[in-house]
Amino acid sequence: MNRRIVLVLTLIPALVFVGFMLRGNSEQPAQRLLVTGSSTLAPLAAAIAERYEATHPGLRIDVETGGSSRGITDVMRGDADIGMASRALAASETGLRAYTVARDGLAMIVNAQNPIRSISSAQVIALYRRRIADWRELGGRPGAVILVHKAEGRGTLEVFLHHFGLENSDIRPDVVVGENAQ
User: Fold this and answer.
1) How far is C-alpha 159 from the chain's CA centre?
2) pTM
């Protein structure tokens, strides 16, 4: 099996995902394929794996999350067959073949009780640079903004920082999360 594949979930036009790398052979003993990486891409990969396994009983596909960097690193080290990334490959991540399988979007979320319905890009930047620390500065009720941020090595973080022209070192969040479910 090709052990140098990274699936990339990006903000560029999508390609249709096909079982190009999932080649099981029913004449051989049970095979295992390990897919690791982006928690953004994991639900799609798990659904594809489940359907593929149903028609290829000699193949087991395990999907594990841990972030885009984990998926890429695992494939580079040979620890995983397929890596999932929600970011483009870095120049230093060589020897890999990336396939875009879907498009993703980022959204800013607030508590349902918060009356603010939209903010500008400039306001997002001001929030993350701590130039805005109270909701009343954005037209909301008075109250401290609790800034939740993604952990280092997460593809979502890299896309967010690039989009808003921010540096991660400039951000001082109140809470840092890894997996999307958090």
Assistant:
1) 9
2) 0.65
